[in-house]
Amino acid sequence: MDNMKFCYACAAPLTPDFAGPNPDCCKHCTDEQGNVKPREAIHAGIAQWFKSWQPNLDDDTARVRAEHYLKAMPHWA
Hints:
The protein is mainly alpha-helical. Helices cover 36% and strands 0% of the residues. The chain is built from two helices and no strands. The chain is globular, with a radius of gyration of 13 Å.
């Protein structure tokens, strides 16, 4: 059985290339000390991630989708 862990803040897989200093969050969602970055910073990153694989997505829609996405993440519950 696969015991893959995922970031509590954004759901990125905590593989060696995404793992950060915090055992529950990825390197994109934490600073060097392992503190989770502000919600606004992660929200902006997720909106940009949506746009990276949906090039016709406008900024407002990307932000709304990112907000819905974050609501499902354990760290923001």
